[in-house]
Amino acid sequence: MVKSMTGFGSATGDISGTAVTVEIKSLNSKFLELSLRLPSMYRDKELELRAELGKLIERGKVDVNINIGNGSNDLSKKSNINKEIFKAYFEELSQLRDELKIADHLIMDTIIKLPQVLGNEKTEGDPEQWKAINELLQQAIVKFNSFREMEGKVTEDDLTLRIRNISKLLIETEKYEKGRIDNIRERLQKNLAEIKNSTSVDQNRFEQELIFYFEKLDITEEKLRLRSHCDYFLQTIKSAEANGKKLGFITQEIGREINTLGSKANDASMQRAVVEMKDELEKLKEQLANVL
């Protein structure tokens, strides 16, 4: 099964009269890069949550946001005024007000902004509320993974097409094999005929060298390995587990065989087929970058 690393899932619910939204979204990454935003009252759940999400999400640059109320994670804090400090500031500033003739509302605005006037009283998380939030999180994860699978199906179809195109091009190269050997033989014999007049040539030695040269140009093993790698790719893509990394390794092997074919081709028509293989391979690699 192919899953995309790009995904999105969300769930919303009403918990004890308060709206709660859980949102998960991810982009490509070689590893798991998890950004987790929780209401401050549930910060103690972060390590537990990271461990769970790591197993369920696996890889990707992932943002997980849990918002309470209007979307602000600071609603778990209640603002209060330190009355003693407020009074002390007010008494001092009142003297300046009379001297400098400052308006009363300016004094109030100034005091509110001074250090330690406003404090935040952190409320503790409710276990029942967290249980309900966790249920919403599980719903969001299900939708998130469904999105990944849906995107992955599209990617799988494209990957399969690219591999089959490479296999077809491999078959196409076979029709150039005999002609390319004949052309090389004719070219060498023509060159040999041109120098026969000026020097003696051992025909037996020439045939031996020719056989050795043709053995170096033989692409039978490369074709067998490339065909085998393509078949293995198609088998792996249907496996149940996430397989992006494994498919990447197989793709590297496919690339090596295609490059070797190109270096041994020694024929314009075969080289064109190899170039088209490389083009298909690059498109395949681009898609694999988004496979889980």
Structure report:
With 292 residues, the protein is of the alpha+beta class. The chain has nine helices and six strands. β1 and β2 form a beta hairpin. α2 packs across α3, α4 packs antiparallel against α7 and α4 packs antiparallel against α9. The chain is elongated. The N and C termini lie close together (10 Å). About 2% of the residues have low confidence.
Uncertain runs with pLDDT below 50, 5 residues or more?
71-77
From the N-terminal CA to the C-terminal CA, the straight-line distance is: 10 Å
How does the helix and strand content classify structurally? alpha+beta
- Portion in strands: 15-25%
SSE order, as H and E? EEEHEEHHEHHHHHH
Q: How much helix, percentage-wise, in residues?
A: 55-70%
* Total helical segments: 9
Name the average pLDDT.
82
Number of strands: 6
Strand order of the largest sheet: 1-2-4-3
| Overall 3D form | elongated
The largest β sheet comes out as: 4 strands, mixed
Radius of gyration: 35 Å
Which oligomerization state do the chains in this entry correspond to? Answer: single chain
Give me a quick take on this structure.
With 292 residues, the protein is of the alpha+beta class. It is built from nine helices and six strands.
Search tags:
two-stranded antiparallel sheet; elongated; 292 residues
